[in-house]
Amino acid sequence: MKFNVLRNLLLPWLVFFVFAFSFSLYLQVEMNLRVHEEPLFLAYLGISSLLCFVFNVRTLRAAGIWIAYSLPLSIRFSAWPWLFRAVAAVLVTAISYKIGEEPWMPLLWKGIITPTVAAIGLYFFARSLVGVVLRACANLLLGRTLAFALSIPIFLIVPASVLVLGGLVANTYWESRGMNQESLSLGQQQLSGSAGNTSAAAITTSLSETELKLQSAAETPETCAANKTLILSHLSTHQPSPLVLQALKGLRCTENRTVVATQKLLDLILGHSSGQVRAAALSLLPYYGTENLRRISYLLFKKISDKEEAQVVQAAAKILAPLGDLERAFVKNRLVILMNGDVHTLTASRILTETLKEEELVLSWISARLNLGSEASPRQNQGEAATRRAIGMICSVSEGQRKQFEPAINSILAAVKEPSLSDFAVQALHCLGESALVACTRELKEPLHISRKFAARILAGMKLPADSELMRLFEACAKDKDAETGKWCSVNLAKMGSPAIPSIVELLRSKDPLSHQAGKQALESMKDPSAKEALLTIRSMNSGWLANQDKLEVARAAQSALNKLQLEIQSDSSSQSIIK
Question: Is the distance from CB of 232 to CB of 219 less than 8 angstroms?
Answer without folding.
Answer: no
